[in-house]
Amino acid sequence: MRTMGRYMLVLAAGSLLAACSSSDKKMVVTPTEVEGKTWVLSSLDGQPPVDGKRVTLEFQSASDKDGKVSGRGPCNGYFGSYTMQEDELQFGRVGSTMMACPEPVMKQEMAFFSAFQQVDTMTSNGEMLVLKSRHSKEQMTFVSESAEVKGVVKSATGYFPADSDVRIQLRDISKQDARSNLIGEKKVKLKYELDAPLNFEIPYSPTLVMPNHTYSVSVEVRHKGKLISRSTSSNIVDLAKPLDMKTGQ
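The chain above was modelled as a monomer; its predicted structure follows.
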């Protein structure tokens, strides 16, 4: 098998996608009104995700009364179902993968799944989604991924092997003394060899972007589970304005 070697990133504009009109007033909504988006957890009972984890929620409706939910918890991927009667929402039993993570992450994951099971109300203004229980002050706040960073990953050899998994991440790297926050992620599975640059789009929520913070894009390529390439330099992105930047390892 040929060795892929080094690659280059070409990053394009971090512009907003078509934004839906919304007001600050939160309205009780049904899952069918918020499906088709990836919602990212911004706080759980007032606390942000630990270690900068990207916790997500997606709805897939089967009818106007029931459907499925899935996403990524602080540690594990999860899946489940929901039902809705009038304005009352209820999630079924949640299943998940069984990975182990550091204690602070696992502690928040347990709190996340526990809060999930108690939810009976969902409100949204189009950009923010709040899940809560009528009988508790605890709530889960999510924000919509409505912006993106576009770019290209170029292999130094001009190709990507078949069965490659490419993971591209957008991170807030402002805190030098802490783990960087994962703002957005794109995973691409290549079934066949690709003899061309790989175009990508990383969705992210503008709500998570802070003024004067530094953001970077990194790439990791695995072939049949084995790491074959990873970016080693900081590919800095200015999300406040359009850009066309070329960087290498």
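The longest helix spans residues 103-118.
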